[in-house]
Every structure is written in C-alpha cells, then in structure tokens.
Amino acid sequence: MASKINWDALGVTTSIVCAIHCAVLPLAAAALPVLGIPILQHAGFEYGMIGLAFVIGTRALWHGFRRHHQRLFPWVLFLAGMIFLIAKQIWHNYELGLLPFAVAMIVAAHVLNYRLSRPARDLPGSGAIFPEFDDKQS
After folding, report:
1. Continuous H helices in 36-137
2. What angle do CA 103, 72, 127 make, to 5 degrees?
3. 10 exposed, middle or buried (CB, 10 Å; 0-12, 13-18, 19+)?
4. Spatial distance between the Cα atoms of 136 and 104, rounded to a whole number of angstroms
5. CB 124: neighbour CB atoms within 10 A?
6. Residue 1 has what DSSP assignment?
7. What is the pLDDT of residues 29-80, one digit of tens each?
8. Are 12 and 115 in contact (CB under 8 A)?
9. What is the DSSP letter of 130?
10. Measured between alpha carbons, how far is 67 from 50 in angstroms, rounded to an integer?
C-alpha cells in the first residue's frame, strides 16, 4: 500500500523545528564551551536547513497549486518567509527579530495551501478564517 505524504504538514513541522532550533541555539551555544564542544552554529548546517525547508515547501505548494487551487498567495507568503530566513543568516544581529516573521509566513503559507487544497465541506468551520477563498460554494 502506497502511503501519501502530507507535504503541508511536513512543511509546518519543519518550520516549527527550525524555529525551535534557532531559538534554543543561542542558549545552547553559551553552554557548549563549558562542556568541551567548541562549535555548534555552523553556516553549512544552517543553509542546509533552509534548503530543506525550501525543497519541502516548494513540493507542497506546487502540488496544491497545480492540482487544487491555482492561487499565488501561498507562494507569496512562502517566498517572503524564505527571504526572511536567508536575511537572518546574512544579518546575524537581527536574527531574533527576523525569525518570527519567517516562521509565521512559512507556516501560514502551508496552512493556507492546505485549506485551499481541501473541499470546503471537509473543513470544520470552513470559510471562517479565509471567507474570500470560499468562492466555490456560491
């Protein structure tokens, strides 16, 4: 039996794990030298995580766009979030200010893509959050 992957759920999970990683990293980085571990914040790892988020997000959004809704707004949210993620890598001093916006936009893009990819009758309280996207019921 072939299993289906919910790419939006995977994207949300990846974004949240990334946010936790970025929030805990400064605290852990301060403690690691005491434990004898000299390095934790590795640029290659950070860019690898951003690349993973981009691949998963692009796969999820492309599926929803191509097969279900043909709306560009989830893409706009996602790409804005990715720009904020890259910006936090370039301007380290603003990392804690940029990260919440990046995560919020990427998670919102996945949630919106998920909602737009489902028939309105399948969603509890459908249309309550995004009534302008409920044009198929009229």
Report:
1. 43-64, 73-90, 95-116
2. 80
3. middle
4. 27
5. 5
6. -
7. 666 656 665 555 577 878 888 898 899 889 888 988 888 888 899 999 999 9
8. no
9. -
10. 26
**In whole angstroms, what is the distance from residue 105 CA to residue 24 CA?**
20
| Pair of tokens at residue 4 | 């289906």
Closest to 56 in 3D by CA, of 15, 19, 24, 84: 15
Coil, helix or strand at residue 50: helix
pLDDT value, residue 125: 53
Inter-residue contact 130 to 112 (CB < 8 Å): yes
**How large is the angle between the packed helices 43-64 and 7-35, nearest 10 degrees?**
170
C-alpha–C-alpha distance, residues 102 and 22, integer Å: 11
